[in-house]
Amino acid sequence: MFSLTKKDRPIVQLLLNAGTCPRCILRFSCVGSQLLYRHPHKDLMKDLQEFLKNSQEKEDTVCLDVAHPPCKRIRLEHREEGADDLNQNGAIPQLPLAGDGNTAVESSAGKVCNVCLGILQEFCEADFVKKVSQKVISADYQFTSFVFSVSLPPQLSVRERAAWLGVKQQMRNLGLPLAKDDIIQLKEAYKWIIHPQLSEELGVPADGKSLFEVSVVFAHPETDEECHFLATACPDCFKPAKNKQSVFTRMAVIKALEKIKEEDFLKHFPCPPSSPKNFCDALEIQCNNGAVFVAGRYNKYSRNLPQTPWIIDGERKLESSVEELISEHLMAEFKADSFNFSSSGREDVDVRTLGNGRPFAMELVNPRRVRFTAEEMKRLQQAINDSSDKIQVRDLQLVTREAIGRMKEGEEEKTKTYSALIWTDKAIQRDDIAFLDDIKELKLDQKTPLRVLHRRPLAVRCRLIHTMKSEYIDEHHFRLHLKTQAGTYIKEFVHGDFGRTKPNIGSLLNRTADILELDVESVDVDWPPTLAD
């Protein structure tokens, strides 16, 4: 059982006369019943009118048999001393009416609410909910639940403050205590009304943890005009920001309202607020699905293919990349807006990646399709492999955001195996390179290579060559198989980079050495999990 009581009558009467809608009046009366807010606007108006008539004769009047679960509230100001006390005999002084009750109802019924700017009026009706639903359905997303969010015009905070100060003034003038210092948040009340309607239209439940978000962005043409006095009173709160059309953002307005003194606010804004000229506009109805993450391993067989697009000063150097050859298919199948590619390290454009391949992951942003069977992922993998002879993908699978952290560990903590084809200026025999096989845990000091100095900070990095195995080819060529610490610059270990890597193959052999070909033979990261063929 929930009821408005006689002590709520001054608040109801004042706000009705000021042009406040019934649902906002319930909010300011701290009514926490979700079901009550879903009653039709006209029925609520009639109930409030009956309450005003009957409250002069009875102590408790309008009673509604509904549940009232815990609700979220927004605190407007600190509680005043004695706020919970009635006058000594418990009576409520008579509130003079501004005209008869019917006049108040008629004047409120056809106007834009002076507090919510119409959001709890026409934007709660079935026609608007159908409009939102049609927008969601036409966007063609896969989802099994939804979370609903709403963005409100910044001046709503101003109008709520003004309405509350108006109530506070009226109660003080009547010699009445003010027992409440918080109200039901507008967003919360709006969701109470919208959730069941939208859930019925979409055929799925509302769920606060859902990854599929339906959002409505409201705007109002009088925002700057109504908030301008705050910029004069609290200029430090309003600073131009990138990508913001107005300095009057929600957070800036709230910050200013926390700083401005009550007497200064009363001088510049009517309390309670006057009725606006226009309803809010539903500026945007947006849908967004949480990101989906796909992982796998790729082999790169071309010595003329970068890992990511190679663009310098706006000019593309090569026509494709590993990233693009994979993302093209994933983007098409998942119907995503964009993607973010990452991998366990990277190879140069002229380096092949062989063996089990290099682990990679791709974040697909705002995908329309999110559900894929294992068989569908296999077909997608095959489509990528059939599209190019430059790369191959294996173990393609859906993963979680958290799982990607295991891949990133391999960039610095794991080992990698390479095969390098090396040239020497002086002739060599098998015995000249045999000693390399006996070297274990060789410590290197590698100053940032000249070729990457434009994108990496200058530093000396200590790295380890765990093992080496040489393979003689002819007097000027041999192949070297290396197992190294992740992050080792192999090319520089071979030629020395003008002495920036010490020791190096050239210094160990006491002759000039250079690298002709380099292959990555393994990246020792046990992720993602291997899948059966």
UniProtKB/TrEMBL annotation:
Q: Which residues form a coiled coil?
A: none
**Organism expressing this protein natively:** Irena cyanogastra
The main place the protein resides is cytoplasm
List the SUPFAM superfamilies. Pseudouridine synthase (SSF55120)
Q: Which UniProt keywords apply?
A: Coiled coil, Cytoplasm, Isomerase, Metal-binding, Mitochondrion, Nucleus, tRNA processing, Zinc
Return the broad EC class. isomerase
Q: Does the keyword Transcription apply?
A: no
Family, per entry: Belongs to the pseudouridine synthase Pus10 family.
Give the location in the cell.
Cytoplasm; Mitochondrion; Nucleus
Query: What Enzyme Commission number(s) does the record list for this chain?
Result: 5.4.99.25
Question: Which reaction does this chain catalyze?
Answer: uridine(55) in tRNA = pseudouridine(55) in tRNA; uridine(54) in tRNA = pseudouridine(54) in tRNA
Pfam families found in the cross-reference section: Pus10_C, Pus10_N_euk
Q: Name one GO cellular component term.
A: mitochondrion
Domain Pus10-like C-terminal as annotated: residue spans:
293-524
- InterPro entries for the chain: PsdUridine_synth_cat_dom_sf (IPR020103), Pus10-like (IPR039894), Pus10-like_C (IPR048741), Pus10_N_euk (IPR048742)
Task: Share an example GO biological-process annotation for this protein.
Answer: tRNA pseudouridine synthesis
- GO molecular-function annotation terms? metal ion binding; RNA binding; tRNA pseudouridine(55) synthase activity
**NCBIfam families assigned to the protein according to its UniProt record, in alphabetical order:** pseudo_Pus10arc
Q: Does the keyword Nucleus apply?
A: yes
Q: Which residues form the Pus10 N-terminal eukaryotes domain?
A: 113-287
The protein in question is named: tRNA pseudouridine synthase Pus10
**Name of the gene encoding the protein in the UniProt record:** Pus10
